[in-house]
Design goal:
alpha+beta, eight-stranded antiparallel β-sheet, seven-stranded antiparallel β-sheet, 35 strands, 28% helix, globular
């Protein structure tokens, strides 16, 4: 078929690649799996993207959208004579709102480029996959790639506000997190779906304030037997580390285990007082541990890279003989990491395969690399070792993928992880979005619907509230009142990361989730739905579980956050929980709203969404939260403030209406209103 003449009607000739060398170049990703596209379309702007998608739809061409192709599971390797639409050249900032601290980027923009932009405004984008210098934002959203700072900030979906999306019929949609109607109800399902449900264009992200200082520590030790102790001490200490990375010894086929264990601990400090408190807790945490503690120079990525290269150098002679690598993405609960580390060594030792292991210590996300000969036998061994790794992850109550997806490489293992109920729901969603299998075919799900006898018992408990402080989650009965859940968490110095304007005391946790009330702590924790890990519901007497208890999990589709599912007869919910902090709430009177003042308030309010209140007496004031005390705030030119001991001024309110509003328009309002100026939402309320 003459693809060039078909696409050339709307696409410049130079943006169409159909020569064999070009097709080969766009037929693989970092997994080294290979396919061959029918043609490659290079997208440089939004119109190119729209044209490429529309031509594919009009001509019934199967297609996939790819970015930088940094994936490790073949997620963007073309199958079934697919057209490849490459977004790698459509990059850069499209729009920025400095008051809202949100930005719209083209999908080809790398994570590092997003952060380079944010740097100008003392902001950054928390999701930080190790490949951030090459990983595009569009690629990251397809895998929900989150990186090590997921510990403090959560997965990538917490920081996505909306995105452009084209369905298989060619229609354009704007998918918004705040909208629970229509196709936006599948916001969380589309993120992490590996581009199999539609084509993502531009993306609106939420940025957060950078810390004043980033502290880094390295613990060096020589045995895996203390990993559980390190984890337990860490999470019981309540230190809110921003990231924790580990490099284990390597395995050499003749020398055995070589090298040392390195545990990197990163902490975001926002003040000298905060820094001192951290050091006090760190000293207590590390007391009597058989580790050497150093303070290395450089970022956590640089130090991680050096430690990794140190251990890799010990395998230099092995890698020269066995140059083909398999980097595995697996995930288990934190409490299973010690077992999994030994399981990985067992795989290497029993199969006589060189191995390097690094992982995101804080969320159970392992990334061992095994090395093989460049021949058919090596390829056979590679597939067998992948299967062994998946078995070990599942044996340790984990999942098939944390941030690299299923793609082609793990497609046959879906049946080993998911029950028939989950698998059937995956296929139902694929058919709902792409009935003819036109978008990125051959990925995530096998062609034929598999069946198994698996039973998920992870939520089987008669206890109403089960808190796991080490794995930082809670499994709670859906009918538990939200204040009861909050109280139970507070007793362990934890919280669910949720505060809202609305009256919620006395309401069941499931009803609060369904209502989708604005979370005033979304700057740090996202919305309450962002924290859902899994659910259990009753379907005509059958107990069904969707999801898991893992913070990172991109095996199959996310099917537990849509209202379509949450409106079922929910019995139990698994949620993320967070360490308590010492943030304080303040009230500052104002006569009018000035943008410069709002920007200053934004600069000290890291977790809480600042509010402007116009009370029933006609007085205006700003409510904000900060880790700083009054003296520290005065140093930052924030004066005439009052410390609030009681937050009922802006919580447990009877919200009458909600509408969009600008700063100028809000100045004209006279009734009792609350203005979330970052979102542009005005709430009319009564006490």
């Amino acid at each position: 078929m003459d693809y060039r003449s078909i696409f050339n009607k709307k696409i410049d000739n130079k943006k169409i690649l159909d020569q064999e060398e070009d097709l080969v170049a766009y037929g693989s990703d970092a997994s080294l799996l290979e396919g061959l596209p029918s043609v490659v379309i290079l997208v440089y702007n939004e119109q190119d993207f729209k044209n490429a998608v529309s031509i594919c739809v009009e001509n019934n061409f199967k297609f996939l959208v790819r970015g930088k192709a940094t994936g490790y599971t073949g997620g963007c390797v073309p199958q079934e004579n697919c057209v490849v639409i490459s977004n790698e050249n459509w990059k850069g900032i499209i729009n920025f709102d400095d008051v809202a601290e949100t930005a719209i980027f083209a999908p080809g923009t790398t994570i590092s480029e997003v952060n380079e932009f944010g740097e100008r405004y003392n902001l950054f984008f928390p999701p930080d996959p190790i490949s951030k210098d090459h990983c595009s934002l569009g690629g990251a959203i397809s895998e929900n790639s989150s990186g090590p700072r997921c510990l403090r900030f959560g997965p990538l979906h917490c920081f996505i506000e909306e995105f452009q999306f084209f369905t298989a019929d060619g229609k354009e949609h704007i998918i918004k997190k705040e909208n629970k109607e229509g196709i936006s109800d599948y916001f969380y399902t589309i993120i992490g779906s590996e581009g199999t449900l539609g084509a993502v264009g531009w993306i609106k992200v939420r940025l957060v304030k950078k810390p004043t200082e980033t502290l880094l520590f390295c613990m060096t030790f020589d045995t895996s037997k203390i990993i559980n102790e390190l984890l337990s001490n860490c999470f019981k200490s309540g230190i809110p580390f921003s990231a924790m990375e580990m490099i284990t010894p390597s395995y050499h086929t003749t020398k055995g285990r070589v090298g040392r264990y390195y545990l990197l601990l990163e902490y975001f400090s926002y003040s000298e007082r905060d820094k001192k408190m951290f050091f006090d807790k760190l000293n207590e945490y590390s007391k009597n541990l058989p580790v050497e503690i150093t303070t290395p120079m450089g970022s956590i990525y640089e130090v991680r890279g050096k430690a990794y290269q140190t251990n890799r150098q010990l395998l230099k002679d092995e890698i020269e003989k066995k140059p083909i690598s398999l980097l595995v993405d697996g995930v288990v609960p934190r409490t299973s990491l010690q077992n999994l580390v030994e399981d990985i060594f067992d795989i290497a030792e029993q199969n006589n395969i060189p191995m390097l292991d690094t992982f995101h210590f804080s969320d159970g996300n392992v990334h061992p690399t095994f090395f093989f000969e460049n021949n058919k036998q090596g390829d056979k061994e590679k597939h067998r070792v992948l299967g062994l790794m998946m078995e070990k992850c599942l044996k340790n109550n984990g999942s098939l993928a944390a941030e690299h997806g299923i793609g082609l490489e793990k497609i046959d293992y879906i049946i080993k992880k998911h029950t028939n109920d989950e698998i059937n729901e995956f296929y139902r969603l694929k058919n709902k979005f792409d009935e003819k299998n036109m978008i990125n075919p051959g990925k995530v799900l096998p062609k034929e619907v598999p069946h198994n006898d698996l039973v998920n018992n992870k939520f089987d408990t008669t206890v109403k509230i089960v808190i796991d402080k080490i794995n930082m989650n809670v499994v709670v009965d859906a009918d538990v009142k939200i204040e009861e859940l909050i109280k139970s968490c507070n007793e362990q110095n934890l919280n669910i990361g949720y505060l809202t304007l609305n009256k919620v005391n006395g309401k069941q946790i499931i009803d609060v989730i369904r209502a989708n009330y604005k979370n005033l702590l979304s700057k740090r924790h996202g919305e309450l739905k962002d924290s859902i890990l899994g659910i259990k519901f009753n379907d005509n007497g059958r107990k069904i579980i969707y999801g898991d208890k893992l913070v990172k999990n991109v095996s199959g589709y996310n099917i537990c956050r849509s209202n379509e599912v949450l409106n079922k007869n929910i019995e139990k919910i698994a949620l993320r929980v967070f360490n308590n902090n010492d943030n304080k709430y303040y009230k500052m009177p104002i006569t009018s709203i000035e943008e410069d003042v709002l920007l200053i308030i934004n600069s000290v309010s890291y977790d809480f969404t600042p509010l402007i209140i116009n009370d029933k007496e006609g007085q205006k004031f700003i409510i904000f939260s900060s880790i700083y005390n009054k003296e520290e705030l005065e140093e930052r030119k924030i004066r005439n403030i009052e410390l609030l001991e009681d937050i009922s001024l802006f919580t447990e309110l009877n919200i009458i209406s909600k509408k969009k509003c600008t700063i100028d328009k809000f100045n004209e309002l006279t009734n009792a209103y609350i203005f979330d100026y970052q979102k542009g939402d005005v709430y009319e309320y009564e006490y």
